[in-house]
Every structure is written in structure tokens, then in C-alpha cells.
């Protein structure tokens, strides 16, 4: 298990530093005013392509300034926001711009924005010259605790979401907590579903912190939120540090996600990912309880903690047949059996393979409204 340490040098004393292990270990910094650390992550590069969406232009310009100050040439690449940017056309425009600038293997791509922008920036970096360095500056809670860490990059195509991509771990991830202050409250809350997930699969201290002060957990100015972000990233770092390519352990990060993906599809991706994960976590807790693996008190704690944060815990009662059909199609597309992550106890995840339709329907009753 890796450990969180305090950063030194140009950064504030309360900056946390998490090391992600692997072929090329990399740091994730969590704190405020982290741009002082950016030039070091780009060391050796003469060009930096800063990929950003319009709402984050000011943050991207600050990052660009920090890089220019070291003599680097900066290529700003504005891309459409959110999922609209995760297309082959946008990636192609980025490749053309890199080509025009003479971007070499020692240069660096910097992704500034939410999960969609860092997914795209990572994909462009993974594919340009078969892989150049990428540094992520995630600005959303979901981006910090999930998308930017772990090296999954990708775009969406007509065949589906995230089916085209590559594992391409970043060289560094800088999570500036100040960016959470301008995040819409609903996006902040939604991102906390992934934090709660991390609490159940690996770090129950996260759950204690939320239960002790749920208001602080949703307050961007509170040190509690900073600690939650750091702990959730630590959970992810511990997992992806030993299983980058999802050959085993990484699957536990999908706790609550099988149903969540089906809800997102049924809602035509208009639901926030974390909101769908929240319902999926309550469903997964129901599966654990009904298979006799999970103590009822721990199963009940899922809906209780998510409720403290104002996250959704129910979905339409009449949707079960359609959700089950989507999950079956998804399973077929991936050539796999239907698998759910369940808990045997707090922080003891396990895989449940092809549960019976009756069991699934019964667990759905726990979220049906
Ligand atoms: N979001 C799940 C993973 O990174 O594996």
C-alpha cells in the first residue's frame, strides 16, 4: 500500500502527495496553488499543448503562463466541453495542431478540465507518436477522484462510449481544490458518489468523516473535503498501482457501476455519472445483503451515507426489465459474463458472477421508487 505524504518545496505545507506505483510511477498532488509544481512535471519538453474547454480558459491560461515562464512554447488547444469533446474529429484536430507545431516525443500534453477533457487529452497523448507525456489538471471532483488517475484514456464512437482508447498513465496529476469552489453544487455532490464508493470498497474512514460532518463534505472550502479527495485518490492509487490494465483487482472500482451504466444508457446520458453510481451502490448493497454476504447494518449504511449527501438512492420501479436488457446487451458486447462487485464486509469486495434473474429483481426492489 502506498502512503500519502506532505509535499515539499514550492508547494504549501498542506499539499498531499500520493505516489501511484507502476512501470512509470507518478505523483498525484492534492492542495491549493499547485501550478508551481507544473514546470517540473514538464521538464525536458520544449513544447506543451494545453487541452481545455472554454469554461476553463482562465485556468488553462494560468497553466500556460506557468509553462511559458520556463521558456516553453505553449500550444493552447480549445476543445468542446464535456462528452462533445470526446470524438475522433476533435482528436484529429488536436493531432493536426500537434503536427503543425512539430510536437516531438519529448514534448508534453496538459489536460485542464473535467473527466471528459482529461480523457481526450490522455487519448491524444497516448496516440501521438505512439505515446507522449500527459499531465492532468482535473478541475471537477469526479475528474480528481476518478478520471484523471489510473491511465484510462478514450473517446466515444458510434459503437459506444469509451470503447476506443488506451491505458496511458499520466506523468503527474495536480488536483487544485480551489477549482471545486466554482463547480456547480450538483456536480460536486455527484462526484462524492465515487468518494463514498472508495469508502465502502477500501477505506471506511471516508464514511466516518462524511457521517461526522456531511455539510463539511460538500463544502469546497472545508479541509474535510480535501481529506476526502485525498483518501479517495489513495484508494484508487493503491488499486491501479498494482493492476493498471484491469486484469483483476481494478474491477473493484466498478462497485455500483453495472446498474449505473444501464441507468445512464436508459437516460441517454443526461444523468450525472455519480448520481447513477449512487443508485448503483444501493443496488449492489442489496445484492450483498440478499446473497447473505453482507451484514444488514453495512448494507443499510450505503443508502444512509448517500442520503446525508443528498444523492439519489432510487430509480423508476417500472424500469427494471429495460435495465436488465441493457445490462445483458452490455455483457454480450464485452464478451463476458454478467459480473457485479459486491461486499462480503466493509472494505472486503468480491465478484458475484451471473446472479439469477430473481436475485437481481429482488435487489432492484431496494432502489425501486
Ligand atoms: N473508473 C474505473 C477505473 O478507472 O477503473
Provide a concise account of the structure shown.
This protein is α/β, with parallel strands linked by helices and 369 residues long. The chain has helices spanning 38-41, 57-68, 88-101, 115-127, 141-147, 185-201, 204-212, 214-217, 223-240, 257-266, 273-290, 296-308, 320-333, 357-364; strands spanning 4-6, 16-20, 26-31, 47-53, 73-79, 108-113, 133-138, 152-157, 160-167, 172-176, 339-345, 348-353.
Write up what this structure looks like.
The protein is of the alpha/beta class. It has two domains: 181 residues, Rossmann fold; 171 residues, Dehydroquinate synthase-like, alpha domain, CATH 1.20.1090. 44% of the residues lie in helices and 20% in strands. The chain contains 14 helices and twelve strands. The longest helix has 18 residues. It starts with a strand and ends in a 5-residue tail after the last helix.
Amino acid at each position: 500500500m502506498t502512503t500519502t505524504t506532505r509535499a515539499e518545496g514550492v508547494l504549501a505545507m498542506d499539499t498531499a502527495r500520493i505516489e501511484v506505483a507502476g512501470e512509470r510511477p507518478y505523483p498525484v498532488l492534492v492542495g491549493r496553488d499547485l501550478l508551481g509544481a507544473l514546470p517540473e512535471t514538464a521538464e525536458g519538453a520544449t513544447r506543451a499543448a494545453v487541452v481545455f474547454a472554454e469554461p476553463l480558459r482562465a485556468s488553462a491560461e494560468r497553466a500556460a503562463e506557468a509553462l511559458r515562464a520556463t521558456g516553453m512554447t505553449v500550444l493552447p488547444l480549445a476543445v468542446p466541453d464535456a462528452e462533445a469533446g470526446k470524438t475522433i474529429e476533435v482528436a484529429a484536430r488536436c493531432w493536426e495542431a500537434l503536427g503543425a507545431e512539430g510536437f516531438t516525443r519529448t514534448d508534453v500534453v496538459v489536460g485542464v478540465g473535467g473527466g471528459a477533457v482529461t480523457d481526450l487529452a490522455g487519448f491524444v497523448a497516448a496516440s501521438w507518436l505512439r505515446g507522449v507525456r500527459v499531465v492532468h489538471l482535473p478541475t471537477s471532483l469526479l475528474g480528481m477522484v476518478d478520471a484523471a488517475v489510473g491511465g484510462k484514456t478514450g473517446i466515444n464512437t458510434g459503437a459506444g462510449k469509451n470503447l476506443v482508447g488506451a491505458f496511458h498513465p499520466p506523468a503527474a496529476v495536480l488536483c487544485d481544490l480551489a477549482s471545486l469552489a466554482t463547480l456547480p453544487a450538483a456536480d460536486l455532490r455527484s462526484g462524492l458518489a465515487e468518494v463514498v464508493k472508495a469508502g465502502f470498497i477500501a477505506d471506511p474512514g471516508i464514511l466516518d468523516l462524511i457521517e461526522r460532518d456531511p455539510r463539511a463534505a460538500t463544502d469546497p472550502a472545508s479541509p474535510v473535503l480535501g481529506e476526502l479527495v485525498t483518501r479517495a485518490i489513495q484508494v484508487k492509487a493503491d488499486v491501479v498501482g498494482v493492476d493498471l490494465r484491469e486484469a483483476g483487482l481494478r474491477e473493484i472500482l466498478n462497485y455500483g457501476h453495472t446498474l449505473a451504466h444501464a441507468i445512464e444508457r436508459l437516460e441517454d446520458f443526461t444523468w450525472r455519472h455519480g448520481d447513477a453510481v449512487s443508485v448503483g451502490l444501493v443496488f449492489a448493497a442489496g445484492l450483498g445483503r440478499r446473497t447473505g454476504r453482507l451484514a444488514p447494518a453495512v448494507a443499510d449504511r450505503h443508502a444512509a451515507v448517500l442520503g446525508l449527501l443528498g444523492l439519489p438512492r432510487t430509480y423508476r420501479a417500472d424500469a427494471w426489465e429495460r435495465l436488465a436488457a441493457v445490462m445483458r446487451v452490455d455483457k454480450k458486447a464485452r464478451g463476458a459474463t454478467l459480473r457485479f462487485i459486491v461486499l462480503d464486509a466493509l472494505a472486503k469486495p468480491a465478484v458475484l458472477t451471473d446472479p439469477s434473474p430473481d436475485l437481481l429483481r429482488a435487489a432492484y426492489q431496494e432502489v425501486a421508487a
